[in-house]
Design a protein that fits this description.
The chain has about 550 residues and is of the alpha+beta class. The protein contains 13 helices and 23 strands. Helix 5 packs across helix 6, helix 8 runs antiparallel to helix 10 and helix 9 packs antiparallel against helix 10. GO terms for molecular function: ribosomal large subunit binding; tRNA binding.
Length: about 550
């Protein structure tokens, strides 16, 4: 929660007190993802009274603020930033006098005075307002953190130039009003996350624990009261340095393995920052693996629950074989449709349960052919029942294996032993990429490599279009779950090499998983060369026409 809206709301007034009477006198970077801001009562160039430092780390995988007592600037490999914001006098090439004045001002480096520090409504941003309508804004948006400089309402400079879209941001648009009333909760069908997107992972987990702690199942009114109690706690919090999901966490609620408590948000931010970034490689890799195993265990539990529910529904309902028998036993009672065809529905006596049953029929088939169709479905039904049973058994065995591996990991004490165990049991497998390249830029598509073949997966409808229309070539293989919304999947062609069967099957499993058929037992997947996929004008985002195709039946698998 160190960049959560509710923490930044507490941090802003604390920083406002610290920066009162100071000027923004220096800004530099000596690391690709780190920027240092210096505020002080300036006497001259690099000669300050009472300096206050803010060190911001702005990596895609981690962003946060540290407020150190002092920062030693390196003599080499550092660069000055945000000169226009620091220097009140601008140079003009055509005006030598103005240029001389600017150089003198730069030499003295007086800086701009701090006016105030503010947060933004329901947003993960913190702003330092300076004189002359300048603003420094820390933007903590997921894997796109940045530091931006505004003059009045427009961006004039930014730290991470690769985030080009940040140039279009407007300062007045950061506040995000949200109706968070009981009436809005009702309209949202009692899904509080739609009203409070700023809660984040830690607060949502806290609320889940509060709900689970009640003796009886709670209703909307009780859940709303828990939310209101949580909001009151977030407005006047204590700050907890805790360990949650195997990593240091700054929390505004008492959750996880609490290590220290604080009253001051600046001190809490410092202790968390040091604790998080003080983790060594062994601790990071071990924590990542433990979280991965726990995620897989939750997924296995969820799949067991889904499959068991399907088995229960099948036992409670009328089977296709029973419907076929009912139709055959009542052929003479089925009214005629057009000619020898059938009506769309028919109500007959279910002699298994001694009650009426309404059966859907295909009007273009005779009653007897409809019965044969239900018998054919019954064969698949038996196969699916066997499959569901096998899946439940397999997932139960997977949970046992995951629990054993978690116990083994917790006992490992060295990085060498950890990596040997990871490789021995292939704990990482062929998981899709996390969306971040090695240079910190964002991956356009999810990506998996199987036997040296690259499999690319679209992230959403617009991203699907980008993948299929711009990044796929005619000889690449294109896959998509049949008849449902889902990701476009591409297997990149390799000259002179046919697509291996196991690679196609793996890509089909991914296409099934990243679709609306994710929870199905079996999913049909379209497989075709990209050259048979086209997008005429007028189709919605993500929609295409497939001119020639084959299909494969697979189990959805992440």
């Amino acid at each position: 929660m160190h960049t959560n809206y509710y923490f930044l709301r507490q941090l802003a007034p604390a920083l406002d007190i610290q920066l009162a009477g100071l000027r923004f006198v220096e800004c530099f970077s000596q690391d690709r993802d780190e920027v240092v801001l210096v505020f002080a009562q300036a006497k001259g160039r690099l000669n300050y009274y009472k300096p206050f430092y803010i060190k911001a780390t702005l990596r895609p995988d981690f962003s946060g603020l540290l407020f150190p007592e002092r920062v030693q600037r390196a003599r080499t490999n550092s660069i000055d930033l945000f000169e226009e914001v620091i220097n009140p006098v601008r140079t003009h090439e055509h005006d030598q006098l103005a240029s001389n004045v600017a150089e003198e001002a730069t030499a003295n480096r007086p800086g701009r005075a701090v006016v105030s520090v503010r947060f933004f409504l329901n947003e993960r941003c913190l702003a330092i307002l300076l004189e002359d309508h300048y603003t420094l804004l820390f933007k903590f948006f997921g894997n796109r953190p940045n530091l931006l400089a505004f003059h009045e309402n427009a961006v004039i400079d930014l730290f991470n130039q690769k985030l080009a879209a940040d140039q279009q941001l407007v300062l007045d648009a950061f506040d995000r009003p949200i109706d968070q009333s009981w009436e809005a909760f009702v309209r949202a069908e009692f899904d509080y996350r739609k009203l409070f997107p700023t809660f984040g992972r830690v607060v949502n987990e806290w609320i889940s624990q509060q709900k689970a702690g009640r003796e009886e199942k709670i209703g909307p009114q009780e859940e709303w009261e828990i939310i209101q109690q949580t909001l009151r706690q977030l407005e006047q919090p204590r700050y907890y340095l805790t360990r949650l999901n195997h990593r240091p966490t700054l929390s505004l609620v008492p959750l996880g393995e609490i290590q220290r408590e604080f009253d001051n948000p600046i001190e809490a931010a410092n202790r968390f920052f040091i604790s998080y970034n003080g983790l060594n490689i062994f601790e990071r890799e071990k924590g990542d693996l433990l979280r991965l195993l726990e995620k897989r265990r939750k997924r296995a539990e969820s799949l067991i629950e889904v499959n068991l529910q399907r088995m229960i529904d099948r036992e409670d309902g009328t089977s296709h074989e029973e419907i076929g028998h009912i139709l055959m036993a009542n052929l003479h009672d089925i009214p005629k449709g057009s000619g020898t065809k059938s009506p769309e529905t028919v109500t007959l006596v279910d002699f298994y349960r001694d009650q009426p049953i309404t059966i859907r029929l295909k009007p273009d088939l005779s009653p007897q052919k409809n019965a044969e169709n239900y018998y054919r479905k019954a064969k698949n039904e038996k196969l699916e029942a066997d499959y569901l049973t096998a899946q439940v058994t397999a997932r139960e065995e997977e949970i046992i294996r995951l629990d054993r591996q978690k116990t083994d990991l917790e006992a490992i004490q060295t990085l060498k032993e950890l990596r040997r165990y990871t490789k021995q049991y292939n704990l990482l497998g062929d998981q899709p990429g996390k969306g971040i390249n090695e240079d910190g830029t964002i991956q356009l598509f999810k990506e998996v490599t199987v036997d040296n073949f690259r499999i690319l997966i679209g992230r959403n409808a617009r991203n699907n279009d980008l993948l299929t229309q711009k990044y796929a070539y005619k000889d690449d293989l294109w896959l998509h779950a049949r008849d449902v919304a889902g990701s476009h999947v591409i297997i990149k062609h390799q000259a002179g090499k046919p697509f291996p069967k196991n690679v196609i099957e793996r890509a089909a499993e991914l296409a099934a998983w990243y679709s609306k058929r994710r929870t199905d037992s079996l999913c049909p997947v379209i497989v075709t060369p990209k050259k048979f996929v086209r997008k005429p004008k007028g189709l919605a985002e993500g929609q295409v026409i497939v001119e020639k195709e084959s299909s494969i039946l697979v189990v959805p698998k992440e």
